[in-house]
Amino acid sequence: MTFLLMTSPSIPPPKGATFVAPFFNSCDTILIMKLVILRGLPGCGKSTIAEELSNKLNSQVIYGDSFKREFMIANSDFKNEEVYLYSYDKITEEIERYFDQKEKLVVVDELFDNKEFVGRVKSFCKESNIEIFWFYIQRDFEKLLETEHQRERKIKNTIEDFKSLQNSLDKIKNEEEVFVDNNNDIKDSVEFILKNLENKL
């Protein structure tokens, strides 16, 4: 007896052949990874929110700042542009790696003010059938400066730096992006994001 895999019901079967419906086990199922992207100015609370979300959602986290520090430690004569380009490459690699590992949910914490980088991430996600949820974390300049002064690093952002970065961030438009006011209790921001993600993950 001849068995054929049924691919099109409009094609008549050869005489004596029996159709077998296609079967897909769990290993054949296409897994769709979801990305929760937190973007915003330095000191707006992205990393803290990312950590809280990771604990509550049991997800992986990609911290953009970790790659920047990695590059600066290895290159004492670094230029800012080189730091960010390295970070963009590493974040993209991590997203691809988690996709290959069939992770279901990944949280990404990064500035996301570079149009080319944002386009690269969106293109990969579109090609790979990865759904993105954008959250723009916002905090008043006064509170950002307070956080900046508490940080242990030689070069600190000024109000002019924040305004310039804000302008770059605002030029990036993301579909269905949710704005998060993080001027109060950070737990409220986490709950707000979780509420927005309800029934989507």
Describe this structure as you would to a colleague.
The protein is globular. The relative contact order is 0.18. The chain is α/β, with parallel strands linked by helices and 201 residues long. It has seven helices and seven strands; from the N terminus they run E-E-E-H-E-H-H-E-H-E-H-H-E-H. It is 46% helix and 17% strand. It has a five-stranded parallel beta sheet, with helices on both faces. It has a two-stranded parallel sheet with strand order 1-2. Helix 1 (46-57) crosses helix 7 (186-197). The protein has helices at residues 46-57, 64-74, 80-100, 115-127, 141-150, 159-171, 186-197, and strands spanning 2-5, 17-20, 34-39, 60-63, 105-109, 131-138, 178-181.
Number of β-strand runs? 7
Sheet of most strands: 5 strands, parallel
List the uncertain runs. Answer: 1-10, 18-29
**SSE-based structural type:** alpha/beta
Order of helices and strands: EEEHEHHEHEHHEH
Name the strands of the widest sheet in spatial order: 4-5-3-6-7
Distance between the termini: 46 Å
- Give the CA-based shape: globular
Strand content: 15-25%
Radius of gyration: 22 Å
Q: How many DSSP helices?
A: 7
Mean pLDDT comes to 88
